[in-house]
Design brief:
Layout lengths: L9 E4 L13 H14 L3 E3 L8 H10 L7 E6 L1 E4 L8 E4 L3 H15 L4 E6 L8 H13 L3 E7 L3 H8 L4 E7 L9 H10 L2 E5 L31 H20 L4 H10 L4 E7 L3 H7 L7
Parallel strand pairs: 1-2, 1-10, 2-3, 3-6, 6-7, 7-8, 8-9, 9-10
Antiparallel strand pairs: 4-5
Length: 294
């Protein structure tokens, strides 16, 4: 529960709003999908300050308009950057130091145009900052009303436990899908012990579990899949065979491959919501029926 609201089982992933790493993106298409998602009962939106170097947060705020006050927005911080040189990529590094985080939280509040961040995740653990120092800072920011709830993204079980030693951690954000399996046993035990909600991402395996790709698929340089090992050579062939098997199981339940993949993750203990990186209205329409299962 965030501000008395239960988050919807589908979380609208807003990384594509940043305009990078997902191929061609039409902001108008995503805006239309957000409008439709609201109509269908989606009240949970996930972004990060590093997505488009602030652009995703800004665009999400503009698209939601006054409704930004009525939904649960989760954003992530702890990643600093230097502007990209012409034709190059921005230099990004992990920074969860208290000094940096306070400024990052203030910047996210300005871009999102809200007074308090419903959920604030540390995006990745910072090897150069002691975890206790980071989460003591977040606890102070929560006491000041700038953050409502605290989360860990991409943390190991021991790292989450260290965070819990100094602050109340409400959510973890982790990759969970039918290709990679579920949580490791230590994380599974921890989230049960601490009553931490799991927000699952990469549920569709970077699009593989939509079932729409075959061996001839190629991805442009501005699409991260052109660089991911699973989309190369024998690894890609193996993944496609796994997807073919999953598609058969989905068809037996009269579901699309994507619907089946999402459903199976939602059925796992501890998973409160799944993040879907939505790029158009059709994608949210396909999976809206899952909201009736809340």
């Amino acid at each position: 529960m965030v501000s008395g609201r239960a988050v919807s089982r589908i979380c609208f992933g807003c990384e594509p709003l940043g305009g990078t790493d997902w191929g061609r993106v039409e902001v108008s298409d995503i805006a239309s999908a957000i409008t439709r998602a609201l109509d269908l009962g989606v009240n949970f939106f996930d972004t990060a300050d590093v997505y488009g170097l602030g652009l995703s947060e800004t665009r999400l705020s503009e698209i939601l308009g006054d409704k930004r006050h009525d939904v649960v927005i989760a954003t992530k911080g702890g990643m600093s950057w230097a502007d990209a040189p012409p034709g190059g990529r921005a230099v990004i590094k992990r920074d969860s130091s208290p000094k940096y985080l306070r400024g990052a939280v203030e910047a996210s509040l300005r871009r999102l145009r809200i007074d308090s961040l419903p959920i604030y995740f540390i995006h990745w653990p910072d090897p150069y900052t002691e975890i206790g120092s980071t989460f003591e800072c977040l606890a102070r920011l929560r006491d000041e009303g700038k953050i409502e709830q605290i989360g860990c993204s991409n943390f190991s079980a021991p790292q989450v436990r260290a965070a819990c030693d100094v602050a109340e951690v409400s959510y973890v954000q982790l990759p969970v899908n039918l290709l990679d399996g579920g949580l490791d046993p230590d994380m599974d035990e921890l989230v049960r012990e601490k009553n931490i909600g799991v927000v699952a991402y990469n549920v569709l395996g970077n699009g593989l579990l939509t079932g729409k790709y075959d061996a001839s698929a190629r991805f442009p340089d501005n699409d991260r899949r052109s660089r991911l090992p699973r989309f190369q050579g024998d690894a890609f062939k193996l993944a496609l065979q796994q997807v073919a098997d999953i598609s058969l199981a989905a068809a037996a339940e009269n579901l699309t491959c994507a619907q089946y993949a999402i459903t199976k993750v939602l059925e796992r203990a501890g998973v409160v919501s799944v993040i879907l990186g939505i790029k158009n209205r059709q994608q949210i329409e396909e999976n809206c029926w899952l909201l009736s299962k809340q």
